[in-house]
Amino acid sequence: MKIQRASTLLAAIAAAAAVVSAPVQAQSPQKVDFVLNWVPGGDHAPYYYAKKMGWYAKEGIDLNLEPGKGSALSTQRVAAGATPIGLADMGGVLVAKGKGADTVAVFNVYANSPQGMYWLKSSGINGVKDFAGKKIGNPAADGARVMWPALAKANKLDPKSVTWVNIDANAKLAALKAKSIDVTTSFYNLHHVFERELGDDMGFLAWRDAGLNPYGNSVIVNPKFLEANRPLVDKFVKVTQRAFAACVKDAKPCVQALVDANGALKFDNELVNWQLVEKLMSDKHSREVALGIHDDKRMADDYALVKEYVGIDKPFDVKSTYTNEFLDRSVKMSK
User: Fold this and answer.
1) d(CA 212, CA 143)
2) pTM of the model
3) CATH topology of domain 115-210
């Protein structure tokens, strides 16, 4: 009987030892959908680079990057919970928040507004005040439409004095050349494309030079997803922040990762795109405090700007629309 008990005890000890010594099975990465503001381009290179390098996967994130169709649409999708994470223009996010679309920004990409207006000088247009009675063409969900009243009013122009025409982003230049529209909008990181196509006849106004420089694209998260997945969001933000810093240091591998994942893109074009993005990323706070930060005063100023020029349907505390808690303060934009 004693021998039998001893054998049983030894078997139990051996089984326990086997459990302890057995390799721990890693949990499968959690699939996370991330909708971009538009189709992939140079400004999205860091996400593709981090994914290619396995940085998201290492943190348990199976990131699925989805092409977008405008900041307004990506804001709506994230707010509705259709997609947990997205990329959208922050000014439009504030407008949407006033209409009940709740999202939280966790990482800022554009410290300076990327918005610009383009036209043909030969049309006789010299600036925003000449837009009255003209046709402005861009996609229906483009963020510039949301913020247009601010630019118009700042230049003493009735926002309703223009006609908006729905055209695909890839048709902007052709429509401008054909004069089926008079003006179009585009982010500054595509400025080189307009310069190449329009030459000396290119008319251009950067919104940031017209007294309107709100934060541009930011990574936004659905609030319910954020509360239920704080550790995951923390890892996502830190990987993304690290990826942007790496791409500023050496852009070529990042742009190559983007091109590898999106075969129709051309490396040289997207490299220039990214180089223009770097200018939009840089301000005092991204250089001195943290890359990706939303400064409290600037956000308060952006709220005031949107409230005055565009309108806030239902007032809210602007601090409820962003958080800097997930940022690594040691990671800064290069000076």
Assistant:
1) 14
2) 0.86
3) D-Maltodextrin-Binding Protein; domain 2 (3.40.190)
